[in-house]
Amino acid sequence: MSLFRIFAAGALGYVAYRAWQRRQSTPATPTLRDDGGRTPPHGDPVLVGESLHVEPVENSGAQSSRGFGEP
Fold first, then answer.
1. How many distinct structural domains can be found in the chain?
2. In which domain, by residue range, is 21 found?
């Protein structure tokens, strides 16, 4: 009886898999063709035409930890 259950579960899984594959192969919506145009900019509209020049941060000096590089 256990072997029959395993076989039945496998057959059911196979049928479900085939149905899923068949459903995936048919597109639900028509696909749109590429018209060769460009995508319009979709960034932050507040920053259109603004420059984002940021001054570099000053380094206060080298930092080392005790024991780094010592034998």
1. 1
2. 1-26
